[in-house]
Amino acid sequence: MDRVTWRTQVLANHLHRSSASSALTANPCVGFSPPELTERFEFETKEMRKLLDHHNLEERDWLFGLMRQSKLFNPKEAGDGRVFVSPDYNQSMEQQREMTMKRIAYLLDRGVFRGWLTEKGVEAELRKFAFQEVAAIYDHSLSVKIGVHFFLWGGAILFFGTKRHHDKWLRDTENYAIKGCFAMSELGHGSNVRGIETVTTYDSKTGEFVINTPCESAQKYWIGGAANHATHTIVFSQLIISGTNQGVHAFIAQIRDGNGNICPNIRIADCGHKIGLNGVDNGRIWFDNVRIPRENLLNSVADVSTEGQYLSAIKNPDQRFAAFMAPLTSGRVTIATSAIYTAKISLAIAIRYSLTRRAFSVTPNGPEVLLLDYPSHQHRLLPLLAKTYAMTFAANHLKMIYVRRTPESSKTIHVVSSAFKATLTWHNMRTLQECREACGGQGLKTENRIGNLKGEFDVQSTFEGDNNVLMQQVSKALLAEFITAQKRNGCILLKRAGSTESLCCGSVTTTKTGRKQRVLGSSELSACRGFGKSFLRSNNIANLHRCRGNCTCWFTEECLSYVEDLVCIDLLGRGCGIPPIWVLING
User: Fold this and answer.
1) pLDDT per residue over 342-368, tens digit each?
2) Who contacts 528 (Cβ-Cβ below 8 Å, separation ≥6)?
3) How many CB atoms sit inside 10 A of residue 581's CB?
4) Does an H or E element contain 51, and which?
5) Which of 209, 267, 503, 560 sits in a 20 to 30 Å window from 315, CA-based?
6) Of 480, 473, 460, 479, which is closest to residue 418 (Cα–Cα)?
7) For residue 487, which phi and psi values (nearest 5 degrees)?
8) 221-254, pLDDT tens digit by residue?
9) Opening angle at CA 189, ends 187 and 190, nearest 5
10) Are 560 and 551 in contact (CB under 8 A)?
11) C-alpha Rg value of the chain to the nearest Å
């Protein structure tokens, strides 16, 4: 048979073959249906969602519904009738920025932001948190753009300002009549806010403040919203009054007019393309003798009179600076919660994929095994899933102590929010990477989101406080709490005094400087060494539990378990004649 005749018969067979005679059979991978649609669970999923989302479920669903209704959010209908929305990360930086502003305008027109700054109380704050979390689930650029405007710019006016500022700025901020940004970070100073170099002086002749960028390292950098859209900014600056530096203060300055033109004596540049968050227009700002009214000083902590006299009820500069920084914890709260929601997204994608993808068979010619049936794959994903559940409850706890905050709880909120922000964002990045790898080549596709989410959320380890710096602050606070608890318990660990080898519970002595300390006698030193040797044999550290017996903060008590490990290392070193690795100092 020649090739032409053979080819004609093949085509004829295709054309005349009935569908019933098809040799093709269904493949379990191709025929996959999501388990939540086909399988029954041993628990009520709606109740689980209530437990995880914790509050404002109806409002969240309402906002998700608004997104599904608009083409601005790129809705796509799945084969089972469900509608998914996600941003298009293949757009250019300019297109992403434009789409972010259009989405904000769409949400504004439908009343999403109503009451975000003008309504008070726990319920209003929880509703705001819920909407912000929904925005972060959809797109990090959208949530950051909203967060800078409401939580940073609006929050600064709300917490740093007084009635005159609230009356003038909050309603217009809520309605986006003005667009705010938050100029704290500089090219030369990020985490070290006290070291910022922008300078503001007071001109008593005109009743105005004068803001200057004295050097290139003082330029405001990474300011979200500054490059294209913001009309006003909160400027953090050193305040110089009569030649005396009164420390960092916050001022309101206009940087663009109503038509979007940059104001005189202000220079703005774009920070450019980033590895993520390209829907946010980060910019750089320079000030050249920019004059603002005296009333634009946010004066809840300190003020300047018409004559130029500096006024503050808090005389200690350290305490005054702490009072300025205390209201900024809301940013760390929203970052921690959004990080956990992102970890949930990546785990949902990776685990669902592992229920569809098969690889290798147990027996020759046998069916291939689902990825999630492999113990190694379970070990990759399921511990992260369990940890994400636990961190979800931690994030919900953080939100609740924040919305119910009191002046007395501000220190606790600062420590817990710093620790959770660092811990939860690190967990998110680890989870994203593991989920990307667990999806194999499919994890590289932008439509599967995980790769993009890595770029979008990587910055969370840096902004609102570098994670390593935050954890150092947490360590400092916990060690102070540890020593305070020991003082209450009468058990204090000290550095060695004079020639004394070890310091723990013992007699109280007074140094030449008048400081009291407990010093080990010879018998106590012997007991200490004996304990170190017994530690070698039994790893028993029960005797150290008294050091944290009266801790009232659950978070402090938990972290002190790590301190106990370090104490044992110190005692072990002494028992073996090795110089101590570290010691704690009293007072």
Assistant:
1) 999 999 999 999 998 999 988 888 888
2) 502, 504, 520, 571, 574, 575
3) 11
4) helix 45-53
5) 209
6) 473
7) -60, -40
8) 999 999 999 999 999 999 999 999 999 999 999 9
9) 100
10) yes
11) 30
